[in-house]
Amino acid sequence: MTRLSFIAAAGAASLLGGCVIVDADVREHDWRGGDFGYLYGAEVSSRGPEITITAHSNGCTQKEDFRHVVRDRGDNEYDVGFRRERQDNCKALVPDGRRMTWSFAELGLPHDAQIDILNPVGR
Fold first, then answer.
1. I need a surface site. Which of 80, 86, 95, 105 has the fewest CB within 10 A?
2. 84-123 confidence digits (pLDDT tens)
3. For 105, which DSSP code?
4. What is the pLDDT of residues 2-51, one digit of tens each?
5. What is the count of structural domains for the chain?
6. Would you say residue 88 lies in a domain?
7. For residue 14, is it within any domain?
């Protein structure tokens, strides 16, 4: 490494001052698109039976802000997706998101249905 390259690299490092740069795809929480928005988490439980999702929240997210879509694939298998219909414009810090639960009965599903969640899950 030449002296000039070293100085440039040292200068860049000092400007970053402890920042960590990650080369990764970043997805916004855009719920208005034609597809299903990202969720922080999704669980299908035989207790109830029920589906629980964890969604991005600014403090005012409610279950009523989401519309569910159920697709019957036959053989007691269903796709279930959740679309946000109303944005959460509050200003609270809710880093873990908001958990909301729907019973299979609320979703019009038989109690022994096999479920695939259509939403991508991750942070």
1. 95
2. 999 999 999 899 999 999 999 999 999 999 999 999 998 6
3. H
4. 444 434 444 444 444 433 333 333 334 444 434 789 999 999 998 889 99
5. 1
6. yes
7. no
Q: What is the pLDDT of residue 119?
A: 95
C-alpha span between 120 and 42 (Å, rounded): 9
Q: Is residue 31 part of a domain?
A: yes
Contacts of 63 (CB under 8 A, 6+ apart): 100, 101, 102
Task: Give which of 89, 69, 90 is closest to 80, Cα–Cα.
Answer: 69
Any domain includes 123: no
Residue 45 structural domain: 27-117
Euclidean distance between CA atoms 92 and 102, whole angstroms: 24
Q: Which residues contact 86 (CB under 8 A, 6 or more apart)?
A: 64, 65
